[in-house]
Amino acid sequence: MLFLQNVQTAAMQVAVLYVLVAVGFVCDKTGLYTEKAARLTNDLLFYIVTPAIIIQSFTTIAYTHEALKNLLLSFLGGTVLHILAIVIALPFFRKGEKRTANVYKFACVYGNVGYMALPLAAAVLGEEGVFFCSGVLIPFNIFAFTHGVRLISGKSTEKTGFKMKWLFLNPGVISVLIGLPLFLLDVTLPRILAEPVSYIASLNTPLAMLMFGTYLAQTDLRKMFLRKETYLVALLKLIAVPSAMLLVMRLCGITGVLCTALIISASAPTANNTVMFATKYGRDTAAASQTVAVVSFLSVLTMPLFIAIAQL
Question: How many CA atoms lie within 13 A of 260 on its CB side?
Answer without folding.
Answer: 23
